[in-house]
Amino acid sequence: MTLRRLLSLALLAFAAPVAPSAAEDAQPFKVQFDVQIASGKTGAFVLEVHPDWAPLGASRFLDLVREGDAFWKGVRFFRVIEGFMAQFGIPGKPDVAASWRERTIADDEVKESNKRSYVSFATSGKDSRTTQMFVNLVDNANLDMMGFSPFGKVVEGMDVVDELYSGYG
């Protein structure tokens, strides 16, 4: 099943996607991100989510998808480090961001490596994942031993992710 949504993403703003039903939750699914990269240029990338890789991470991502515009409106890629990763997932509305801050999820076992195009949730320590996630721009196997468990991978449009502005770090 493909979840399609638009993001006005100066770097990211999503319109509410149609989420899989409960029976489909354990199956891989896809979400398309349509993004504005630079100078009005737009592109798209598709994230394929694998609940078997990181069940808690995939479930959290699906929760965020189901929130629709309430969560995604105003979300931006706020940290892009060339040769490392591109991070996003903080809601644009401060009250929405605050409502998710304490809703942490436990760590998943690392079953897949943080290879180029794989997506993991950011963490500030054990069992502290919330809504921030990142796309690995290169192979980052060193993150595996630090507990960053990929829950999906970009299967189309990695060239678009590579074009995200990294001038701010």
Automatic annotation (TrEMBL):
It is an enzyme of class 5 (isomerase). It comes from the Eukaryota. InterPro entries: Cyclophilin-like_dom_sf (IPR029000), Cyclophilin-type_PPIase (IPR024936), Cyclophilin-type_PPIase_dom (IPR002130), E_coli_cyclophilin_A-like (IPR044665). It catalyses: [protein]-peptidylproline (omega=180) = [protein]-peptidylproline (omega=0). Residues 32-164 form the PPIase cyclophilin-type domain. The keyword Isomerase applies. Pfam families: Pro_isomerase. GO terms for molecular function: peptidyl-prolyl cis-trans isomerase activity. The keyword Signal applies. Keywords: Isomerase, Rotamase, Signal. Its EC number is 5.2.1.8. Belongs to the cyclophilin-type PPIase family. PPIases accelerate the folding of proteins. It catalyzes the cis-trans isomerization of proline imidic peptide bonds in oligopeptides. This is Peptidyl-prolyl cis-trans isomerase.
